[in-house]
């Protein structure tokens, strides 16, 4: 039985990641002509052009897009089979990991996470990356090693996930705000002037959908890009913010937090990573450490009580 040249899998993986013959050649330390010949062989084997010219660049065909999520795990698994068994010693590990997350995660989990890292692996550096969008590109291209967030429609189908903790939206206002002087009903909540946290210029989301189901619409006074900014603005104004309880626990100290008078689902906050790093011992160790820290911090906060801004496990 004649087997195909499995080295072509590595070539295809790099080509699909880079989207450029020149960049793929440089990464694999090949000449551009050698890489072009390899692409020609891949086209012959798969029966598909894979990458086609669009202007001055190359774009992937539908077949190439289909293969992109399958090739990297195959290459990583093959590499893991041929690597010797590694016994990880965190104390001797020297490596920089990048964790993509919102500022609220850093503010509430960053310090305890760094304390454990310093104790267990003093030579490990953690680079917290901002998260302006939910798309999975940074995990796919390797610019982020892992990510903390809510799994949604923009999460790539190949992305691995592990639940960290649950969260839910609570309202927050300054002490003495008229809204919290008596029962917060859907009608009174909608009538208040609100701070919307959104990357877009318009509203939407579960809160507005729930209000819409009751025939209500909240009054948006301003739009900000992050939950911490919303809490800070609510503290110094008559505006009301609606934010995830766990991600703003410390920021809401001294303010009045209240349960939203709406039937909203809890948020499942997860750790996300690309399959190519799934078997990496150091990555697995750090994933376990992040989860341990999240569980420990959630237990400290106790059961979710919106009036006190605590979080659920």
Report what the structure shows.
- The chain is α/β, with parallel strands linked by helices and 313 residues long.
- The protein has three domains: 7-82, Winged helix-like DNA-binding domain superfamily/Winged helix DNA-binding domain (Arc Repressor Mutant, subunit A, Orthogonal Bundle); 95-167 and 267-301, D-Maltodextrin-Binding Protein, domain 2 (3-Layer(aba) Sandwich), CATH 3.40.190; 169-259, Periplasmic binding protein-like II (D-Maltodextrin-Binding Protein, domain 2), CATH 3.40.190.10.
- 39% of the residues lie in helices and 21% in strands.
- Helix 1 packs across helix 2 and helix 2 crosses helix 3 (32-46).
- The protein is globular.
- Residues 306-313 have low confidence and may be disordered.
């Amino acid at each position: 039985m004649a087997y195909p040249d499995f080295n072509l899998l590595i070539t295809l993986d790099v080509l699909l990641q880079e989207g450029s013959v020149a960049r793929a050649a440089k990464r694999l330390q090949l000449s551009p002509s050698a890489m072009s010949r390899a692409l020609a062989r891949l086209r012959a084997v798969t029966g598909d052009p894979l990458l086609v010219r669009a202007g001055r660049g190359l774009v992937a065909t539908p077949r190439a897009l289909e293969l992109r999520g399958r090739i990297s795990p195959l290459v990583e698994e093959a590499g893991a089979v041929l690597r010797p068994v590694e016994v990880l010693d965190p104390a001797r590990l020297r490596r920089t990991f990048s964790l993509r997350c919102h500022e609220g995660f850093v503010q509430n989990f960053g310090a305890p996470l760094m304390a454990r890292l310093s104790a267990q692996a003093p030579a490990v550096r953690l680079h917290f990356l901002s998260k302006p969008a939910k798309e999975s590109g940074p995990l796919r291209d390797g610019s982020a090693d892992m990510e903390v967030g809510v799994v949604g429609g923009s999460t790539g189908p190949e992305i691995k996930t592990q639940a960290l903790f649950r969260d839910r939206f609570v309202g927050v206002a300054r002490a003495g705000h008229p809204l919290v002087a008596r029962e917060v009903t859907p009608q009174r909540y909608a009538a208040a002037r609100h701070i919307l946290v959104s990357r877009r210029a318009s509203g939407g989301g579960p809160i507005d959908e729930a209000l819409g189901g009751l025939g209500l619409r909240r009054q948006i006074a301003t739009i900000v890009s992050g939950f911490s900014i919303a809490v800070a603005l609510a503290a110094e104004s008559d505006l009301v913010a609606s934010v995830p309880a766990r991600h703003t626990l410390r920021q809401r100290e001294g303010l009045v937090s209240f349960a939203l008078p709406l039937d909203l689902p809890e948020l499942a906050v997860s750790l996300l990573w690309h399959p190519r790093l799934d078997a990496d011992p150091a990555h697995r160790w750090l994933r376990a450490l992040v989860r341990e820290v999240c569980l420990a911090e959630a237990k400290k906060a106790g059961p979710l009580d919106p009036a006190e801004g605590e979080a659920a496990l």
